[in-house]
Every structure is written in C-alpha cells, then in structure tokens.
C-alpha cells in the first residue's frame, strides 16, 4: 500500500466542505465512505492511502453542487416571507432549521442547500405565502417591522411577485420588487404540526 501526504487532500476536502459538501456527499463523489473523509479532515494523520487521495483530489466543487439543489429558489422563497414580515428566527422555530442557516441563505451566502432543507422551506412557503406574522406582543411587532424594513431596503418581492414556474431555475431574478402586502390572514406558529401528526 502506497502512502502519500494527507495535508493537500485535507485542504482540498475543506475547500469542498466550504462549497457546501458534506462528508457523505464528498465520500459518494469519491467512491469512499463518509467516515473516511471525516477522519482525513479531523484525525490530522500525516499520511493516507494514495488511491483514496487520488479519488478525493478528483472531486470538484461542481460534483458537490450536483448533489445539492442550487439555493436560488430557496433564497427567494425565504426573502419573500421576510417581505411578508416573517423573521429568520420565526421561520427557524417553525421548521427546526437553525436560524444562522436561514440567515446565510437569505443573505445569498449559501452555495448549495440540501434537498431536505429545500423541501422544508417550500412547505413553509406554501403555508405562509399569503399570511403575515401575528403581532400579539411589542416584540413581535418590532420583529415584523424590522423584517418589512429589510425587505423594502433590499427590494425583495412578496411571494405574489415571484414566478413559481421559473423560481427554481439557476440565476432566476424576480421581475418585480418590494411592495407592501397585507396578506389574507395570520400565519400559524406551527404550520408543520398537522403534517407531522398525520
């Protein structure tokens, strides 16, 4: 068995991780196991098998992006919900997705999203697209006002301003910008409760 330096491979895998790759998706693309990839990054061993190193070095960011949907449609769905007054914290509480993850997507910093996350956001969007958040407390009112202000400053459209047929195509840009929307009612705090109960 031939051994080679693990450091260049470790740096390459870290680059793939920064591009949105998981240990599992990188391992699949290289034809090796997720735990092997994890060990290379975290065990800090000086040497590794040459065959595994060659396969990992051949994995590109495009290979990783091919395993995850582009984030554009998810980003615009979340931005449209912000334009209805929903905050990332509120959306996180409804979906179980960490608020920091949602904020990164809303800012446009995410290169990929997982299929599961995309599905959760799509279901949330379908439940809340025409609903505004409740404003039962001063804190809820301030949060909603802050979300609306952010959407207006960034010219993010409300859900009705998105083209559902084009939304998930890479590079999609909405035709319309921000407009105040009243909605048709109040959004349920737990829109997934009924789905999980069934």
Task: Write the topology of this structure.
Blueprint: E1 3-5, H1 7-18, H2 23-30, H3 34-42, E2 47-49, H4 50-57, H5 61-65, H6 72-83, H7 88-95, H8 99-107, H9 115-128, E3 131-132, H10 138-154, E4 185-186, H11 193-197
Parallel strand pairs: 3-4
Antiparallel strand pairs: 1-2
Task: Summarize it.
Helices cover 54% and strands 5% of the residues. The chain has helices at residues 7-18, 23-30, 34-42, 50-57, 61-65, 72-83, 88-95, 99-107, 115-128, 138-154, 193-197, and strands at residues 3-5, 47-49, 131-132, 185-186.
Q: In percent terms, what proportion of residues is strand?
A: 5-15%
How helix-rich are the residues, as a percent range?
Answer: 40-55%
Gyration radius from CA atoms, angstroms: 21 Å
What is the averaged pLDDT score? 88
Overall body shape: elongated
Distance between the termini: 53 Å
Verbal overview:
- By secondary structure, this protein is mainly alpha-helical.
- 54% of the residues lie in helices and 5% in strands.
- It has helices spanning 7-18, 23-30, 34-42, 50-57, 61-65, 72-83, 88-95, 99-107, 115-128, 138-154, 193-197; strands spanning 3-5, 47-49, 131-132, 185-186.
- It has a two-stranded antiparallel sheet with strand order 1-2.
- Helix 10 (138-154) links the parallel strand 3 (131-132) and strand 4 (185-186).
- Helix 2 crosses helix 4, helix 6 packs across helix 8 (99-107) and helix 7 (88-95) packs across helix 8.
- The protein starts with a strand and ends with a helix.
- The relative contact order is 0.14.
- The model has no long low-confidence stretch (mean pLDDT 88).
């Amino acid at each position: 068995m031939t051994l080679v330096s693990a450091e260049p491979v470790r740096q390459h895998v870290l680059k793939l991780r920064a591009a949105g790759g998981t240990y599992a998706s990188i391992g699949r693309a290289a034809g090796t196991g997720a735990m092997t990839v994890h060990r290379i990054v975290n065990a800090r061993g000086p040497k590794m098998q040459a065959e595994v190193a060659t396969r990992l070095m051949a994995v590109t960011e495009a290979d990783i992006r091919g395993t995850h949907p582009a984030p554009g449609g998810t980003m615009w769905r979340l931005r449209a919900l912000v334009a209805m007054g929903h905050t990332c914290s509120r959306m996180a509480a409804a979906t179980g997705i960490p608020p920091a993850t949602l904020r990164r997507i809303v800012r446009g910093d995410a290169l990929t999203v997982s299929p599961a996350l995309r599905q959760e956001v799509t279901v949330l969007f379908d439940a809340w697209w025409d609903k505004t958040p409740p404003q039962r407390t001063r804190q809820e009112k301030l949060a909603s006002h802050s979300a609306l202000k952010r959407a207006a400053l960034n010219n993010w459209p409300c859900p009705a301003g998105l083209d559902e047929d084009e939304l998930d195509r890479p590079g999609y840009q909405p035709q319309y910008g921000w407009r105040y929307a009243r909605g048709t009612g109040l959004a349920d705090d737990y829109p997934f409760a009924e789905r999980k109960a069934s």
